[in-house]
Amino acid sequence: MKYRLMAFMAGRNGFDALSNTLVWASIIAMFASRWIPNQVAHMIVYYLAVFVFVYGYFRIMSRNLPKRQMENMAFVGFFQRRKLNFQQRKTHKFFGCPQCKATLRVPKGKGKITITCNCCGRQFTRRS
After folding, report:
1. Which whole number is the average pLDDT over 9-27?
2. 28 pLDDT more than 90
3. 35-60 pLDDT, tens per residue?
4. Which residues pair with 105 in a beta bridge?
5. Which of 5, 72, 76, 81 could pair with 16 in a Cys bridge, judged by C-beta atoms 3.0 to 4.6 Å apart?
């Protein structure tokens, strides 16, 4: 049986961080929907959770590996950037470029400074 399952899953995406998050979030939402007193809201949350659960398993069974890996990398990268920004919040300040929306990091406590965007070269003045 183990080898049949391995043969079935060969070439498929399998569990990754995004699929794992989708499946667990949908299970939690299904159980949480039981305590919603409004019947219409309960059904909406429940069916949304079922949809997310099915999408999570679609990702697990998908054979389109490059696309699923790109989605997972974007998901993991988003949370890694948030974690890094949170860790550096006491020593640095983060600004968004007004032109290209790139995130720029500058040290705190330097007063009013001119920031040059690395991506587009636009300069703007902010207080750090």
Report:
1. 90
2. yes
3. 999 999 999 999 999 999 999 999 99
4. 94
5. 72
Structure tokens, 7: 């043969």
Does pLDDT of 121 surpass 90? no
- Checking if the pLDDT of 75 tops 90, the result is yes
Mention every residue, 6+ apart, whose C-beta is less than 8 A from residue 56: 19, 22, 23, 26
Long-range own/partner contacts, residues 55-62 (CB < 8 A, 24 or more apart):
55/22, 56/19, 56/22, 56/23, 56/26, 57/19, 57/23, 59/13, 59/16, 59/18, 59/19, 59/22, 60/12, 60/13, 60/14, 60/15, 60/19, 61/12, 61/13, 62/12, 62/13
pTM, whole model, 2 decimals? 0.69
User: In the numeric block, which tokens belong to residue 105?
Assistant: 């990091």
92: three-class secondary structure by DSSP: strand
